[in-house]
Specification:
The chain is an alpha+beta fold. It has a single domain, classed as 2-Layer Sandwich (Alpha-Beta Plaits), CATH 3.30.70.1060. Helix content is 32%, strand content 35%. It has three helices and six strands. It is flat. The two termini are 15 Å apart.
C-alpha cells in the first residue's frame, strides 16, 4: 500500500454558498462528507483529514517575503485534505469519485506521498 493525499480545491463562490446555507443544509452537506470519508475508513484506507481555514500566509523566496493569502485572483482555494492508503494511483483516483466537493464544481488533486 502507498500513501496518497487528496487536496480539495473549492471554487471561490462555494464559500459564499456555504455561508448562506441553513443549519439543516449545512448538516446535510457535512453528512455527505462523513459518509464518503467513513466509506474509505471502513476499507481500512483512511489516515486523516481536515478542513483548512480559508485565510493564511504565503512565504516566498530567499528573502521569505510574507503575504496574506489565499488571493482573490486564485481560481481555486485549497479547502482541505485527506490522507489515505491505496494500492495504486488508479485506486486513489477511484476513491476520490465519491467526494462531495464535486457537487459544487470543486476539484480533487490526488498526489502520491513520496518515500525516500
Amino acid at each position: 500500500m502507498e500513501k496518497y493525499m487528496l487536496v480539495f480545491h473549492n471554487v471561490p463562490m462555494v464559500e459564499e454558498v456555504y455561508a448562506t446555507m441553513s443549519p439543516e443544509d449545512m448538516q446535510a452537506e457535512l453528512a455527505k462528507w462523513d459518509a464518503w470519508i467513513g466509506g474509505i475508513a471502513a476499507q481500512g484506507k483512511f489516515i486523516s483529514s481536515d478542513a483548512l481555514d480559508p485565510k493564511g500566509k504565503t512565504i516566498r523566496g530567499s528573502k521569505r517575503v510574507i503575504t496574506d493569502g489565499p488571493f482573490t485572483e486564485g481560481k481555486e482555494l485549497v479547502s482541505g485534505y485527506l490522507l489515505m492508503e491505496a494500492e495504486s494511483m488508479d485506486e486513489a483516483v477511484e476513491l476520490s469519485y465519491g467526494c462531495p466537493i464535486y457537487d459544487h464544481e470543486g476539484t480533487v488533486e490526488v498526489r502520491r506521498i513520496q518515500v525516500y
